[in-house]
Amino acid sequence: MTQALATGAAAIARRIADVIDPVFALIDGWQQRMEARLAPEPEPRAADLDPAVAATVAAELDRPGTLITGAGFVAAPGYLADAPWHLAWWLSDGNPFRGVPARGIRRLDAVSDPDAESFRDYTTLEWWRVPERTGSRHLTGPYVDYLCTDDYTVTVTTPVTIDGDMVGLVGADMYVARLEQVLEPVLRDAGRTLTVVNASGRIVTSTDPHRATGALLRLDGLPDALAPLREAEAEGRVTAAVRLPDGADVVPCGDTSLALVAE
Amino acid sequence: MPHATARADAARAVVFSPLEGAGRAELVEQRLTDAIASGVLRDGERLPSEADLAKFLGVAPVTAREALVALRHKGLVRTRRGRDGGSFVTYDDDLSLRLTEERVRALSRIELRDLSLHYAAIAGMAAEVAADRASDDDLQSLVEIDARADLATPGGARRAVGRFQLEVAAISQSPRLVHEELRLQAETGALLWMCLREQEYRDRTREHRLDVIAAIRAADAASARRATTTCIGTAVEWLIDEKVRLEAALPPSIAHEEGSAP
């Protein structure tokens, strides 16, 4: 019986990964295009690159039903000849939080002058730091994206590497509310309480409507059960399911770094 | 992603966030005056261009221009022409003191208390929720903000308070609390944290900050709220004492007239 339930949870965890995988595939596609484009460039320049990045991400940002709300390329410091610090990031102009429907894309205003007061070395931030360290994809968040959209967001970033050097990264933002919307049907009718958490144990969505998105799921042994998930993400491998002392199953959702907790 | 710029300096980001309500030049002028007088914008710092300022604050370019002209007349910015031109902040101790004093006198005690209550409601709730929702990484970022705080100057202490409060709101995971925190910082921060002029109060805010961090670490929501609202309460009581001092120093007719202005 327990075995059957665990199998059920595993199947649902797989389906959660299937919902998010297209976004990962999209970003992987951008990564390959960027690597192919940049590899032969003797002196890559932001001025040439930006229109290409915009064209690449615009198609997806404009697509009805897309999961993403922002996307782009961020250069490693010093990589681009004409822009030592460079973010080429575009946002979908719709903003559900303020009731603004989608209407085209706009560029993220970023401070790229290291002498400016508000300049921030982005290589110290989680969405850069982790992919740089691990050489692979990372999911940051959920977090409140407070400068641009005032919304609750997840950001996925993956390194762009040429001859073994990380020259930048590509990535995309997703609204958690939208993610919840697409995950809800996947979680329905399971017979157990199902909660999707990130590797820190933060709730993304739950079949228990009283479990708030953004709260930490506090279960005995959960932090320990999630610890390998953070490590495994680095290698792009999938960890095994873990049973907590109170009988809950913690099942990784593919290599998304999210986990399904079935109680 | 925009974290990249927002975390750099929350107090500064607030200065250039969109204005609520009708985009009037006086509001733009007030926002920038507050930021300059309280030391959030530094002496010699270049302001965004007219066009950028208009875009950030959500006002017409002509409104931004009008506000910059007014700031120039007040002696708060100077404009340089040419390739490296633009509007630059000129900070002057005496002028800043006078401007903030005018601000305090223009509001009644009732308004000052009400404003601090409103802010305490938002910041206190954010702290309460943050105590429940903070991960180890979140705690670490609060500790770092505190460690980087420059308590030697009013502006440094103000920036630290702004960053810390905004980070706490972000940790609450609530977009609306973050939004309100930003709005209230922009609207009332310069006034409310005027006590940071005094070293004693800079040290006291730090004590409160450490209390909030300890409470969040212990997942003690009630203590996190209490430490936050106590800190804000201390600040407003200083402000009211300051108002009494300022009014006592003025001839009665002027004090009355200024006190009744909106």
Structural commentary:
The complex is a heterodimer of chains A (263) and B (262). Chain A is of the alpha+beta class. Chain A has 2 domains: 19-175, Beta-Lactamase (2-Layer Sandwich), CATH 3.30.450; 178-262, 2-Layer Sandwich (Beta-Lactamase), CATH 3.30.450. Helices cover 33% and strands 25% of the residues of chain A. Chain A has helices at residues 2-38, 46-61, 126-134, 176-187, 222-235, and strands at residues 68-75, 86-92, 105-107, 138-145, 151-162, 165-175, 194-197, 203-206, 242-243, 249-252, 259-262. In chain A, the strands form 2 sheets. Chain A has a 6-stranded antiparallel β-sheet with strand order 3-2-1-6-5-4, sandwiched between helices. The longest helix of chain A has 37 residues, at 2-38. Chain B is mainly α. Chain B has 2 domains: 3-96, Arc Repressor Mutant, subunit A; 108-248, Four Helix Bundle (Hemerythrin (Met), subunit A) (Up-down Bundle). Chain B is built from 13 helices and 2 strands; from the N terminus they run H-H-H-H-H-E-E-H-H-H-H-H-H-H-H. In chain B, strands 1-2 form a two-stranded antiparallel sheet. The longest helix of chain B is centred in the C-terminal third of the chain and has 28 residues, at 221-248. Chain B is globular, with a radius of gyration of 18 Å. At the A-B interface, strand 4 and strand 5 of A face helix 1, helix 9 and helix 10 of B.
